[in-house]
């Protein structure tokens, strides 16, 4: 195991979004001695209120673009680590309009790597299991650190490109970098464009949930808090230059997840619409996280998906003010796509 790294001041990009804000809350709660600087462009997916409750002295917020090299020159030198979450993150959007994905996910990562290299700052890269493509439903294999890259969508290919940049910067320039590839996250603050919050808020609005294709596609669900603890573990104990896969053995078909949501919200099992499939729709993701568990001693805490889902449903019920302002526009966009 590598020597422990003790960060004092972390730059967290994209922390006004879903997973980054959960990580900022996690650090503020579990490691209050660490200062967090958030850099976020506040795109449609960012909401500064996701950071409400983090004590002022522990965090500062910079509104800006990761592609802005001059801005990075001002904020990176004061930090001893960068944890890079900022991204265009939604597959369906990447199919409708891929350009922002190349700009933010590829060019933005390049700018951050250059800043990390210039100021010799430790860098942790947040990526996705989607870079490995998909698995057949009956394949006994799961993704592992040696799986070949085979991305399917403009989103996942832009994330794959960014992973390759990080590997090259680590090998060629000796950048102190690590990478993690995580499976599908769920929990509070997730945008209503994504599968689980879309269906929960549809039910709350009296709209029938929408299921793509045959509903048999499988995702490997992990609670976002477990993703945060894994990233913290890799940042502080991970071996420089290494990649770690993050997953919590949460494989479920979309139709099973939807039926759980319907049951937990008092709806009939067939109270949803089948809609047009996503072009290029990945069939199944599944993560083998043995390396992270055995080498770094990490384990997930939220191992009961149904109780995590219940808590997530309760969060959306209690936080209608948070999601209501963006719900209508999100559904209008889907309606145009026949989804
Ligand atoms: P999100 O869309 O909820 O949030 C993205 C955040 O990045 C937003 O706050 C947005 O304003 C910000 N941002 C976008 N472009 C920016 C730019 N150019 N400069 C600065 N900020 C910018 O995304 P998420 O679901 O929280 O995903 C976060 C990261 O985790 C992404 O890198 C994603 O690829 C990765 N990931 C997500 C999942 C998942 O299930 N959602 C799983 C594995 C990995
Ligand atoms: O309305 C829907 N109906 C439906 O059946 C939506 C929005 C989705 N789906 C299906 C498509 C997928 O099989 O549900 C599954 C999950 O869809 P998304 O929430 O869009 O997630 P996914 O495409 O799997 O990607 C997510 O996990 C990996 C994140 O959005 C990525 O950022 C992450 O890298």
Task: Please tell me about this protein's structure.
With 339 residues, the chain is of the alpha/beta class. Helix content is 41%, strand content 16%. The chain is built from 11 helices and 13 strands. It has helices at 18-30, 69-75, 91-96, 99-118, 154-173, 195-205, 224-237, 254-264, 290-296, 305-318, 320-336, and strands at residues 9-13, 35-40, 59-63, 81-84, 122-128, 177-182, 185-186, 210-212, 218-220, 222-223, 243-246, 251-253, 273-275. The strands form 4 sheets. Strands 3-2-1-4-5-6-11 form a 7-stranded parallel beta sheet, sandwiched between helices. It has a two-stranded parallel ribbon with strand order 7-10. Strand 5 (122-128), helix 5 (154-173) and strand 6 (177-182) form a beta-alpha-beta unit. It is globular. The model has no long low-confidence stretch (mean pLDDT 97). The structure holds nicotinamide-adenine-dinucleotide and thymidine-5'-diphospho-beta-D-xylose.
Provide mean pLDDT, rounded: 97
Please give the radius of gyration in angstroms: 19 Å
Please state how the strands of the largest beta sheet are arranged side by side.
3-2-1-4-5-6-11
Q: What order do the SSEs take from the amino end to the carboxyl end, as H and E?
A: EHEEHEHHEHEEHEEEHEEHEHHH
Relative helix content = 40-55%
| Uncertain spans | none
Beta-strand content: 15-25%
Largest sheet: 7 strands, parallel
Distance between termini? Answer: 47 Å
Q: Determine the number of helices (DSSP H or I, runs of at least 4 residues).
A: 11
What class would the helix/strand composition place it in?
alpha/beta
General shape:
globular
Number of strands: 13
Q: Which ions, cofactors or small ligands are bound in this entry? A: nicotinamide-adenine-dinucleotide, thymidine-5'-diphospho-beta-D-xylose
